[in-house]
Amino acid sequence: MRRHKRFVPFKRKLQGKTDYRKRLVLLKSGKPRLVVRKSLNNISTQIIAYETAGDKVLAAATSRELLKLGWTGKRKNMPAAYLTGYLCGIHAKKAGVTEAIFDAGFYTSVNGSVVYAVLKGAIDSGLKIPHNEVVFPPEDRIKGKHIKGKDVESEFEAVKKKIGVKK
């Protein structure tokens, strides 16, 4: 007797990819979501709007794009996360997005984490996102003063200036 494949309800929940209760709360706001995801070496951010046919990506940025702007450091650290959020915010403003809701997905909420550095970058670019100042990392960590061996701080400022010029 052969078994047929059956539809598994909430398949993405079983895979650990989607928290449907949290998603519903975010979608009820009617605003686009700032989605942050981390991979092994990169950080990606997207501004996503809900549509009945499927979610639509309005703007996106990855830490890999920072390489084109002169970034030579790691792409998953605190300064790179901030710059990726800042870049995504600039792309979103070009697409006509002025406000969003923060969606960290399944990441554990830890004050001062890389995920909140992305949020700070998006807010500093001009997006209106509800937040609490307590969650942001300290300014010296965002600029990379804690990283030894390289002059990350001056490189951070140079890349941020290039992103701002691209407006």
Can you walk through the features of this model?
It is a single chain. This protein is an alpha+beta fold. It has one domain: Nucleotidyltransferase, domain 5 (2-Layer Sandwich). The protein has helices at residues 11-14, 20-28, 78-94, 114-124, 139-142, 152-165, and strands at 33-38, 43-49, 56-62, 101-103. A four-stranded mixed beta sheet has the order 3-2-1-4, with helices on both faces. Strand 2 and strand 3 form a beta hairpin.
Number of helices: 6
Largest sheet: 4 strands, mixed
| Count of individual domains | 1
CATH fold description? Nucleotidyltransferase, domain 5
Strand order of the largest sheet: 3-2-1-4
Task: Tell me how many strands there are.
Answer: 4
Mean pLDDT: 89
Compressed to H and E, one letter per element, the order equals: HHEEEHEHHH
> Helix fraction?
25-40%
Q: Output the CATH class name.
A: Alpha Beta
Provide the gyration radius in Å.
18 Å
Report the CATH architecture: 2-Layer Sandwich
Percent in strands = 5-15%
Keywords:
167 residues; alpha+beta; Nucleotidyltransferase, domain 5; 4-stranded mixed β-sheet; 6 helices; 4 strands; globular
Describe this structure in a few short sentences.
With 167 residues, this protein is α+β, with helices and mostly antiparallel strands. The protein has six helices and four strands, in the order ααβββαβααα.
